[in-house]
Amino acid sequence: MTALLEIDDLHVEFAGAGAPARVVDGVSLSLAAGETVAVVGESGSGKTVTALAVMGLIDPPGRIVGGDVRFDGRSLVGLADREYRELRGRELAMVFQDPMTSLNPVQRVGDQVAEAITVHQPDVAVGAAGLRAIELLESVGVADPVGRSGAYPHQLSGGIRQRVMLAMALANRPRVLIADEPTTALDVTTQAQILELLANLRREVGLALLLVTHDLGVVAGLADRVAVMYAGRIVEEGSVDDIFSASRHPYTRALLAATPRIGSKRGSLVPVPGVPPNPAALPHGCRFHPRCALAIDACRIEVPELEPVRSVPPASVPARASGPAPAAVPPRTASSETAPDPDHGLDPGHRSACFRADDLS
Amino acid sequence: MSSRIGDEAARARAGALDPVLAAGGDDLWSAGGRWRPAVRSFRRHRPAMIGLGFLVFMVFACFVLVRFAPSPTDLHLTDPHATTSGPSWSHWFGTDLATRDVLSRVLHGGQISLQVALGIAVLSTLIGVVIGALAGFYGGWSDSLLMRFTDLWIALPAIPFLAVAVSIGTVDLGPFGDFDLGSPLGITLLLSMLLWGSIARVVRGATLALREREFVDAARAVGASNTRIIVRHVLPNCAGPIIVNATLVVAEAILIESTLSFLGFGIQPPTPSWGNLLDDSISTVEQYWWLTVFPGLAIFLTVLAVNFVGDGLRDAFDPRRQQVRA
After folding, report:
1. Nearest-angstrom CA–CA distance, B188 and B181
2. Distance CA B256, CA B116 (A)
3. ipTM score of complex
4. What CATH homologous superfamily does B67-311 map to?
5. pTM of structure
6. Which pLDDT tens digits describe chain B residue by residue (326 residues)?
7. A117 CA to chain B: closest CA distance, Å?
8. Helical (H) or strand (E) element with B202
9. Are strands A307-308 and A233-239 parallel, antiparallel or unpaired?
10. Which of B13, B30, B222, B237 to mutate to test the interface with A (most CBs of A within 10 A)?
């Protein structure tokens, strides 16, 4: 299996009054056909910007300053707008967070779905596109698709609007679907329905799904692999099991501790202390260290790389915070450069960007 | 009264609950459409409805009823039996110095004045919408350039500009022949050039806000081009402000055209317009008041009616007002 979508060392900056804000800083991620990868993280961690960068929808003052996005082996960064437009909607589709605001309020939803078809297939007659739109609405589980296609967005519930968004996204049978918090704005029952729909689509159509969310419950139910983002970097990546039951990053652990679970005791939720850093003034070293209970001197100096975690804890634990700082650079950095790159990023196994990952096992 | 409002509210609720029922109509203006609250609000705006009624009557009178006026076609028909006289049963608005029927002249003048005003509204709206949408959507230097260009036209002093343009009179357009700037078409073009600025500003403002909306991103994610996004997603969403402004331009156009004709720079006699009817008669207003009062009244009432309609439309498209009324 090869990667259908590859994000390779992507850097996105937003120019501001002062120093440019590095909102995405060296993110690499790959997605195979039929696979679901979840990107999780707090607000402002850069997950939505990563998704928009894949779609080529970063607007000034935002700019991709480094790295590449490849779809089916083809580099997308710097692609001419006309060519990118061909891909958007046809190969790469996106569902946005808020179905309340993502539909044009003065256009009937059937027309909006039909437009998604005619944009890429201009020779389809208006009537045929309308019929196809009704089929699409039906396929995403809209009851009474004929009647609903004539409705305006404000006449529909949030769940149906999100289905309409999905119908638009799927109109041209894209190979990659990016879902940016597809269920955040919905109530719990509707969430479950939409997630089930996504899971079915993936099974039936072989859709590659990039799921951007801060909801760990959604991740557990749907994803094959999870990438945890913090302050523009992926800090941990692994299978759902790796992340949920064997996390090797203090931030992931903090996130999990802050997630409610049925049956857990009252008061067992532990908020992550502090706030995410300002992307225009990132802390030195590991970006999480100001909020991390396990931080050592090395964390304040060196940015930890994303590296495979060892299944067995090493015999020698890296030196604790003692002695001069340079001495605290962990021994693993040297070996990482020679580490093999299995299958060029596809299922790279469980990786963590933490000097103390091994202590967390 | 209150029970009727309650009734409508109940029907609105039923419509909101049942999208099929609510979406029964075929276009935006129908009862089930997106603009149903606006239509409802407008219909409850009493001055606007009266204004609209008056305008409909005025247009009907100028273009249809004029056929039944004493001189339906020949504007310059003099009545050999009449002298210059005040309103009477045979000449409702009296006759002028050349014993022509004033009612007929006012109605024919209305044809010209209303056509010119409508033409100006359509043309200036078109120019303003295109320039405003491009400036607002693309932003950056194209925005600066287009808006400075707009400022330039807004800053032009209207009356001197038009006076100069009309006094140039006929221009030679080469293969297209001669073009008279003082003709109704000439005045329409000249005034449109002066009046599109405010619409461009309004549309630019609305577009600036709209282009940040998520549905624009969603349209881009589907692969829509910028042109498609502007035409299908941005402009329909500023239809409210555009319609309101176009209406107000009609009133403004009638006034400026009248002023201009009154000063002798507008539509040139013998083609009658409300403005030059006033101009013709103002020197004799003490003896023959009806020659001045009736065209003046026509201008005054029409502009008032247009402004009432504009008011009603503005209220109808203002979401805050709607919530209060709904």
Report:
1. 9
2. 11
3. 0.78
4. MetI-like (1.10.3720.10)
5. 0.76
6. 344 444 444 444 444 444 443 444 344 444 445 667 778 888 888 888 999 999 999 998 888 887 777 665 555 666 666 666 767 777 777 777 777 778 888 888 888 889 999 999 999 999 999 999 999 999 889 999 999 999 998 888 888 888 888 888 777 777 777 777 778 888 889 889 989 998 999 999 999 989 888 899 889 888 888 999 999 889 988 888 898 889 889 888 888 888 888 887 878 777 788 888 888 787 887 888 888 888 889 999 999 999 999 888 888 876 555 444 33
7. 9
8. helix B184-210
9. unpaired
10. B222
